[in-house]
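Obj: model holo form, ligand = zinc ion.
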Amino acid sequence: MAKFKFYTSFLIIFIIVVGCGQNPFTGKSTLALVPNSQILPMSFQQYNQVLEESKVIKEGEHAQMIQRVGLKIANASERWLMENGYPNYTDDYKWEFNLIEDDQVNAWAMPGGKIAFYTGILPIAKTEAGVAAIMGHEVAHALANHGQQRMSAAQLQQVAGAVGMMAIGDDQQSQQIFATAYGIGSQVGIMLPFSRKHETEADKIGINLMAIAGYDPDEAAELWKRMKENSGGGGPPQFLSTHPANDERIKNLQNWSSDAKKEAAKYGVTSFQ
Ligand SMILES: [Zn+2]
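Output (holo structure tokens):
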């Protein structure tokens, strides 16, 4: 038994050592236990499953707006990556932005650039810049590999629990871990919360992306004020339960807005919608 424990600890350390990489958006070493080649096919499959089980709005003003904002934010992130020496970072991504007919106040991103907005969040987003603030935040989670890091933690837990010794490299097991980490499957689109640290990172990356994409970064704080106003009443909507709209978040975004405008100016963007 002691020997078994020793091997388990050794395996965990080994995974941590080989699994660390530099994340261009945070400048930090991040734990990437599961490589893109393994996680992205799972993500794409899960995303398609969600779309199949949902009513996707393909035409009309709102669906077009989600597409337009998504492409602009994705384009902004690719310009940023190119400029900062990571031209191939999103090579394996397959960007997709879908609007789902659902009254839930919700929006989320899966690894590899798979984004969904629910119609229920549109009244709070209110404007295209409001949509861009949410989109920037969600795309930032995907780019910073926050989901992947969360999944790694789930997988490490399994290893520590001595269940996962054989699970690594096992497709079915990995699928299950993915579903657990994302909380999807039977409850479509229900996401586990990110840590506060990841939320703050996504806010900071997101506000820069929206500015580079030509959307007024002042609108990010305005969006979260509306989120806060909507957080009362009959229980928190899905998005707000994982994204607390508190004063600290609003204040941070107000403080970061002028830096985001300066960042956008580096890309020749000086006027905002
Ligand atoms: Zn978030």
